[in-house]
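Re: the 319-residue chain
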Amino acid sequence: MSSAQPRGPVDSSRTPRYAGPATFARLPRLDEVGSTDIAVVGVPFDAGVSFRPGARFGGNAIREASRLLRPYNPAQDASPFALAQVADAGDIAVNPFDINEAVETIEAAAGDLLDAGARLMTLGGDHTIALPLIRAVARRHGPVALLHFDAHLDTWDTYFGAAYTHGTPFRRAFEEGILDTSALSHVGTRGPLYGKKDLDDDERMGFGIVTSADVMRRGVDEVAQQLRERIGDRPLYISVDIDVLDPAHAPGTGTPEAGGMTSRELLEILRGLSGCRLVSADVVEVAPAYDHAEITSVAASHTAYELTTIMSRQIADAH
């Protein structure tokens, strides 16, 4: 972060929140500030989905819902946009017809932003995009700890022979050696599987599992403490599939599963991770065509806000 005061959001006391361009949290565009500590970037891609499409529209839906975010975060006692420069870097334009090319494009574009000194707060898009994002982050930090919030494991091998889909990113990441296998966790998983082998394979890769029922029974404080202990001081990547939330809290997603976490539980667990070394994050699988009253995109915007706050506080502490 430079010594200059970060440029923050548009002043909502002068311009109504519903007016003007829908950048994330009404923050400046990257081209308006030149460089940034945290780049909020969209990846409008959903060619890797296995059920309902539409997550390609998720990033802009999250931006629209984020108009209501305010500059002070009382839950973390921080003003994230004053602690570090946060800017909206627009979208990574990817080929919607060629998954392999799209993965390469995302990796290269993410690498450029990281090389310029930014951390990434990525708005998906389907979960396929997590693989190239982690590749880019691992190139900078080495193998990363992964905290994966999701209804599903996303460690399956292939779908219809395809290796790159929204259900396979973390198996590919494991195979490529870009994950720190001593610090891998799923949180919020639930629902039917193809067979017990799914769990056996997942355990072999090093993943620990905290189900949505575990969160309900044990509570958010205990879960957050367990995750902090597992992560330690390793560089951490957090990937949030919005379907980790129950469909009552996130109906606008491609593969909903009953029995999920509440938005309050998700946000509280994230706040409990504020001491972890978060190097980048994503929020994916928002499919606004299945949403109503912006329930899902509002939850996603607040999730991204908490993650951004964690990174901003750490950037300020480092300076």
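The mean pLDDT is 97.
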